[in-house]
Amino acid sequence: MVELPMKIRAPVRASIILFLILLTAALLSLHWIDAVSPAITDMSFQEAFLPSITSNTSWAGINCSFTCPTPSPTTIKPNESSSSEVCPEYFRWIHEDLKPWKKKGITKKMVESIQSEAHIRIIVVNGRLYVRKYRGVYQTRDVFTVWGILQLMKLYPGKLPDLDIMFECSDRPVIQKRNYGGSKVPPMFHYCGSDSTLDIAFPDWSFWGWPEVYIKPWETLRKDLEEGNKRVKWIDRLPYACWKGNSWVSSVRNELLKCNVTDKQDWGALVYQLDWELAREERYKNTNLANQCTHRYKIYAEGVAWSVSQKYILACDSMSLLITPHFYEFFTRSLLPTIHYLPINEMDMCRSIKFSVDWGNKNPQKAQEIGKVGSKFILDELKMKNVYDYMFHLLYGYGKLLKYKPIVPKGSTEVCLETLACSGSELEKKFKMNSMVSGPRDTSPCTMPAAYDPTTLQSFLERKANLTKQVERWEASEHT
Fold first, then answer.
1. For 18-66, where are the E strands, in sequence order?
2. CA–CA distance, 146 with 328 (Å, rounded to integer)
3. From CA 407, how far away is CA 162, in angstroms rounded?
4. pLDDT tens for each residue of 175-211
């Protein structure tokens, strides 16, 4: 028996509608999440990046400190040695992301021209990392991003060049192509990009954990998902498409609610509104992602921009249904329709979902194959080893484009394992410990694949577009 999402009673519905109106007004006034950022104070920076006054002198083997220890002198080692292992195909997008600066490089003026749009500035000088915080950041995104870079530096000590990075930590990319031309593009690091922007896509904070919603670090969760996939065989899963999340953050998710199964209409979708407050009260016992691979099909719907949920959805062995994405993560540009997922037309969403579910149930072998290929891509090619190697090659390539020697700007604070590991809540500390690398790696980073030549890139993009059109033709023929 299929468990239907709870219906909303009429009096409650009226209250919710009023609440949504007020919420929408609030979100618009705030430009969704953090366009109006709180002021940065010494205390707010200390709470995020430095141990508290009452912090233990040691935590899980780390000697907590307000200042970073003086390391023994090190020489920055050029990245001359190469690994026999070739990086995954999606690493080729690094060349595309850095292309605007390939000919003339990056000047200090370019970097500092976007200071007003950045949340943090990350500087690496002589193997030491410094942070200058400009604006308040939603939750702990900046903290876990910096933690990830510190792990990279521990993994490959002395191999990164000096760096000067502006990082925007909200949802939407900010460097619009239409506003810049030629070599005057300012370099901004961000968690996602789009066809109309030039932000440099970098792995998001959730790879090291998202404590506010109790999502474990990726290396742990990836293994949990792999085990979770074994609990229910694909053929024994519910023959429906499932989506669970916060629908209030985007219009596409609001539209998705209309596709929910009712006693009058069956679009093949089970859509669950996630109440995060209730989830917190229940200590997240019903939000374990490894326990949610129970449907044959999983729906991905963007939020304010991209959503970190995409990797979790694709990893489920279920055939993923991607509602027309407008943003990409660092790894998603290499995904192909009908190979890794089926595309869902956002302009006719319910009908498109219904077609995909019916098609999959009529063609179970092919649907299961698409789910397996998508899942294998995530579980194999997105291991933390590859995430760190992607970060390394991106930062190494970026650093070599700088036309100046970075210096530590006024107002910056040095951050290291000894300070950051001991800051924040107990859960934050736990996630940091669980995502800490054991030490320097014996091998070099994987070998970068060559950049796309224009013909090959155009051919790939055309193939992707044609595969989407092919699915649209299948749908059209079904409806005639």
1. 58-59, 62-63
2. 21
3. 9
4. 999 998 766 899 999 999 999 999 999 999 999 999 9
